[in-house]
Amino acid sequence: MSIQAQGVTKRFGPFVALDDVSLDVRPGGLTALLGPSGGGKSTLLRVIGGLETPDSGEVRIDGRDMTRVPAHERGVGFVFQHYAAFEHLSVFRNVAFGLEIRKRPKDEIRRKVGELLELVHLEAFADRRPAQLSGGQRQRMALARALAAEPSVLLLDEPFGALDTKVRRELRAWLRRLHDEVQVTTVVVTHDQEEALEVADEVVVVNHGRVEQVGPPDELYDKPANDFVMEFLGPVTTLGGRLVRPHDVEILTERSASALPARVARLQRVGFDVRADVTTSEGEAAWVQLTRAHADALALAEGADVWLRTRG
């Protein structure tokens, strides 16, 4: 199902949460709405899902005007950061809940829920209560519950935000595999740049209620539309008065007419990488990202004179 937002504006009192936003989400893809807190990404998701009504503009799903259609009539599945599980029900009953209230046949519910629990790798936990699950398992249960109604669109609002870093990494890899299998049009809100770049087919950068740039992850990272997008989508440093990626700065140990003279102020190993903090002869502070092998090959030391230039 395709999603189109056209000229959407949403205010909360004097605060403009969305300012004339237009967006096309391609059918069957996984699109990430990425931006800082308060930038408007969750409001845009809620407008698409029918949880908020725009002050102006329209929302279409599969070509149909949904702007004033209630959320429960849009064929949309929601997953939020907080699981909102029914704690007194088993995992099976939590996933089955939406089918039960629709009065689907018991055999159909049993078959469907069994398939979904297997899909999210929770078939062995069907009889447990949500309190007996880990955070990652509870979020997988929430996804299964959202998929039970066979939504045409799946909307996820910071689904892994309450989880620790290791579980987040595991779940976003799992989400990508799940999406490739079920292929429902999916929009996920996140403020985690790595998460967006890793899971999404397309990234929408939202800031101050406006869309800054839309495109595939590689395009946004390599060809940012402006300084905000560049700074938000990865590490940056300033060299010669302009923003550059720290891994695109080359350190030379011999003088070069095309390079800026500098001095190594600090070396810090960060896992596989080495961070070199440097100060140019003009007093500009910058940093360079190198592999440990490259830093060792250069025999870098704090206080050493070096020369810097950007690659490409």
Describe the protein in words:
29% of the residues lie in helices and 33% in strands. The protein is an alpha+beta fold. The chain folds into 2 domains: 3-231, 3-Layer(aba) Sandwich (Rossmann fold), CATH 3.40.50.300; 238-310, Beta Barrel (OB fold (Dihydrolipoamide Acetyltransferase, E2P)), CATH 2.40.50. Strands 6-7-8-3-9-10 form a 6-stranded mixed β-sheet, sandwiched between helices. It has a 5-stranded antiparallel β-sheet with strand order 13-17-14-15-16. A 4-stranded antiparallel β-sheet has the order 2-1-4-5, covered by helices on one side. Helix 2 (91-101) packs parallel to helix 4 and helix 3 (106-119) packs across helix 4 (135-148). The longest helix has 18 residues, at 165-182. The two termini are 40 Å apart. The model has no long low-confidence stretch (mean pLDDT 92).
In N-to-C order, the SSE pattern is: EEEHEEEHHHEHEHEEHHEEEEEEHE
Strand content: 25-35%
- How many discrete domains? 2
What's the N-to-C terminus distance? 40 Å
Keywords: ATP-binding, Cell membrane, Membrane, Nucleotide-binding, Sulfate transport, Translocase, Transport
InterPro entries: AAA+_ATPase (IPR003593), ABC_SmlMolc_Importer (IPR050093), ABC_transporter-like_ATP-bd (IPR003439), ABC_transporter-like_CS (IPR017871), Mo/tungstate-bd_C_term_dom (IPR008995), P-loop_NTPase (IPR027417), Sulph_transpt1 (IPR005666), TOBE-like (IPR024765)
Protein name: TOBE-like domain-containing protein
Domain ABC transporter: 3-233
